[in-house]
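Q: What structure does this chain adopt?
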Amino acid sequence: MQAAAGFNYRNVPAVELAKELVASGRIGRVEHSTVRFLADYSADPDAALSWRFRTATSGTGVLGDLVSHAADLLRHVVADVEELVVDRATFIAQRREAAAGAMHYEKGAGALGDVENEDYVSALLRLADGSRAVLESSRVAVGEQNRYGLEVHGTEGSLSWDFRRMNELQVSTRGADGAYLNAFSTTRYATPGDGELGVFQPGANNPMGFDDLKVVEARRLVESIATGKPVGATVHDALSAARVVDAMITSSDEKKWVRL
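A:
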């Protein structure tokens, strides 16, 4: 039996390219990374107290919603998380009850109720390859709409990707003279040879969109079923992300480093 997990950011052709560059040693040995998933979908304090803010219906807050994707992106491009320490916060402690069926984008109209899960998470991570990482995520970041991205710094260069410009990868390597200082970044547009861009577009800088990533997800699931071999993000990847989230909860509650 085959299954798929909806970790669509790993399906972005520019992200697939980033993974290849890291694995090939193009930027040298990875030293440190930063992954940020910032959003404003819960920034309005008058937004309704929907199911997203209830432990019984959503479990965690931004941890399960955005951090799970951030953890998978970091793991996919760089390495597994081995140890972490976390701080989390709920900045909007109460919201007004939602009308029946209302989403968190709508205004609350009822009595005030407690928000039961976190709005924000920050973490220090130690990865299996010996590198370090910083992870930050928020659902209440005013001015941030789907600011999801990854930066990776190595001994010979660096790369960065931003979902808001999802078809571009910024790459920096030492110059021809071998100098470390004042290296510049270049924009590498995803091409038909990167990931599955060629299925959608004929050439570089012909952008894909988020909906295309869902098509890639569905296609990989069908291929997994047809061949009997897993393709793309699987339930095992979902389990890995869930273990990171669980470790983050433990670290935050017990105020200590936690080893996975």
